[in-house]
Amino acid sequence: MYLKSNDLFADSRPESIYDALPRPIIMADNLLTPDNMGAMIRLSDNIGASEMIFLGTEPTHSLSRVRKCAASSRDNIRWYFTQENNLRNLIPANKKIVAIETATNATNIYSTPLPADAAFIVGNESRGIREEILNQCDLIVYIPIPGPTRSLNVSHAAAVALFEWYRQQLKIDN
Q1: Alpha carbon distance 51, 23 (integer Å)
Q2: Over 60: is that where the pLDDT of 173 sits?
Q3: 83 and 56 Cβ atoms separated by less than 8 Å
Q4: Over the stretch 108-166, which tens digit does the pLDDT of each residue have?
Q5: What is the pLDDT of residue 61?
Q6: How far is it, in rounded angstroms, from Cα 148 to Cα 28?
Q7: How far is Cα 133 from Cα 117, in angstroms, rounded to an integer?
Q8: First CA to last CA across the chain, in angstroms?
Q9: At what angle do helices 34-47 and 154-173 cross, to 10 degrees?
Q10: pTM of the prediction?
Q11: Predicted pLDDT at 129
Q12: Among 23, 64, 146, 159, which residue has the fewest nearby CB atoms (within 10 Å)?
């Protein structure tokens, strides 16, 4: 029998993880499509992030599409666009910045301990994270893909990484 998700999780309080951990910050470097931007806002809300930061120009012509794709999450979480490229001007010094990217020095996300106090960043749909941004990250992880298409949609990659982070924190916390 179908059960609404709010009813399923009503008694389990999965958000209680944030009684002991700081909320993550989520960032995206120069995303192009409003659907992906909206999906990132929704995902940030789903994981309980404190904010969603878009590095790059605000897409004024398609901002209504971003809001539509974010659905109710657009009002649940702080999200904004910025031209700032120095991540430490955006992210508190105590947070570790984790890039989700295929790069020469990236490690497998499933064998890499992810920091509890983290800011995660994903890249542009076609070019990934810019080198100047990637160089500011404390950790770079990749997601192994078993199928013939070796890349994920940016919001899917973020979802895999964020829920792996969540799984690791639950394991550590319990």
Answers
A1: 9
A2: no
A3: yes
A4: 999 999 999 999 999 999 999 999 999 999 999 999 999 999 899 999 999 999 999 99
A5: 85
A6: 25
A7: 19
A8: 31
A9: 10
A10: 0.94
A11: 98
A12: 146
pLDDT score of 172 more than 80: no
Q: Starting at the earlier edge strand, list the strands of the sheet with 51-55.
A: 78-82, 51-55, 25-29, 118-122, 96-100, 139-142, 107-108
Tokens encoding 123: 């890249």
Token output for 62: 């398609």
Taking the C-alpha atoms of residue 55 and residue 128, their distance in angstroms, rounded to an integer, is 12
Which run of H or E residues covers position 54? strand 51-55
Give just the sign of the alpha carbon dihedral 94, 100, 103, 109: positive
Taking each helix axis from N to C end, the angle separating 34-47 and 63-70, rounded to the nearest 10 degrees, works out to 40
* φ, ψ dihedrals at 41, nearest 5°: -65, -45
Q: Considering only CA atoms, which of 49, 102, 41 is closest in space to residue 67? A: 41
Q: Which CATH superfamily is domain 21-173 in?
A: SPOUT methyltransferase, trefoil knot domain (3.40.1280.10)
- The per-residue pLDDT of the chain, averaged, comes to 94
CB 91 within 8 A of CB 97: yes
Query: Would you say the C-alpha torsion 63, 68, 70, 73 has a positive or negative sign?
Result: positive
